[in-house]
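Justification of resources, computational component.

The compute hours requested in this renewal are based largely on the per-chain cost of generating structure records like the one below. Each record pairs the submitted sequence with a full structure-token output. That output is archived, and it is also reused by downstream analysis tasks.
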Amino acid sequence: MAELRLPPPQERPGRLLELVVGTLDGDPAAIRETFGEVVARCSDVDAERARPVLRPVVDGWGRELELFSA
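The structure output for this chain reads:
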């Protein structure tokens, strides 16, 4: 299996922790931002690959998650 290299985080660690806490608390703004970050990072990783791997998984989560898009 090919090694999956993730890009270094662009956010400061404190901001990521804030998003996780907000998401776990059910804060709609934090949930939308966290979902947007997941989608963006998956797309970034796939951009470096010959064939996308992560974005098809995100797309497979279903249309119900569109409400999380900012």
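The helical segments are 13-25, 28-47, 54-59. The chain has a mean pLDDT of 81.
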